[in-house]
Design brief:
The chain is an alpha/beta fold and 273 residues long. The protein is built from ten helices and six strands; from the N terminus they run H-H-H-H-H-E-E-E-E-H-E-H-E-H-H-H. Strands 1, 2, 3, 4, 5 and 6 form a six-stranded mixed β-sheet that branches. Helix 1 packs across helix 2, helix 2 crosses helix 10 and helix 5 runs parallel beside helix 10.
Length: 273
């Protein structure tokens, strides 16, 4: 993945303009726009790599410090409003950048905590979308990110659910008609869902056999693909450790959505540089 420098933000604005063309200026004139929505998206995405931030306040302070000459920044209150208004455009760009035609993809899920488990009963911000879930690390309270990546690590599909949703039920959201083989862990080894995916999408779901099943039934190419499941796990690790995908700072559901989408979009968009 390419390392971004400070001057790359100009190219990033140009790339975003290609997805979201700007409207022509009105001939009657009027008050000029202080910060265009495309420039707002560029600041949100660029900060994810140059100086990862968990809050909009951190992004605003970072932009004031290093890009006060490049962009005309409004007040903090107006900047927050512009960030929330830019969310539909960011979702549109992310949908366009997903590698939906990837014939081979690796799928898995990861927990995203919204607060510590001891504070779950008092947490009200994400009460409608979060839930209690358990994995090999123990109990958690938050949401779950389901994702599928290709061999290069690019996102092919994403889906958010509460933490108590089973991974195997999310397979239809991670495959499409272009998928030939989808590789997952043991939670995707449900024969009913695998037959349904083959019948409806012609997608072959490859998962490790049950401990009671004989592993010798797998062919060599199947074993080689199962060893590459770390592709998606490395992607999750990079998103959470380097890009700070996991956060508990937002004070609304829209704030959580804005943070998750801007991190995922920044990760996906940097492959084009």
């Amino acid at each position: 993945m390419r390392v971004l420098r400070s001057h790359h933000i100009t190219k990033l604005v140009t790339v975003i303009d290609g997805f979201l063309p700007r409207k022509a200026a009105s001939p009657k004139g009027g008050r000029p726009v202080i910060l265009h929505s495309n420039e707002t998206i560029a600041l949100l995405l660029f900060s994810s790599f140059v100086a990862p931030q968990r809050t909009i306040k951190g992004v605003y302070t970072w932009a004031q410090t290093y890009y006060y000459r490049r962009f005309r920044l409004p007040s903090y209150k107006s900047f927050v409003r512009k960030c929330h208004q830019a969310l539909p455009g960011m979702c549109f760009i992310l949908d366009k950048l997903l590698v939906k035609d990837a014939p081979l993809r690796f799928m898995d899920s990861t927990m995203l905590h919204v607060c510590k488990l001891i504070r779950a009963d008092r947490h009200k911000v994400a009460k409608g979308i979060a839930g209690f879930g358990k994995n090999w690390q123990g109990w958690h309270y938050g949401v779950k990110l389901h994702a599928a990546v290709n061999l290069k690590g690019q996102l092919a599909a994403i889906h958010f659910t509460a933490a108590n949703e089973h991974d195997g039920q999310q397979i239809p959201y991670l495959v499409n008609n272009a998928t030939v083989i989808a590789v997952g862990d043991g939670t995707y080894n449900a024969s009913v869902m695998r037959r349904k995916m083959w019948r409806e999408h012609q997608a072959y779901i490859l998962a490790p056999p049950h401990p009671r099943q004989d592993k010798k039934l797998l062919e060599r190419w199947q074993l080689l693909l199962l060893r590459k499941r770390s592709k998606v796990e490395c992607t999750f690790d990079y998103l959470k450790e380097h890009l700070l995908l996991e956060t508990s700072f937002p004070r609304s559901v829209e704030g959580y959505a804005l943070h998750y989408i801007r991190v995922l979009l920044g990760y996906q968009l940097v492959w084009g540089f």
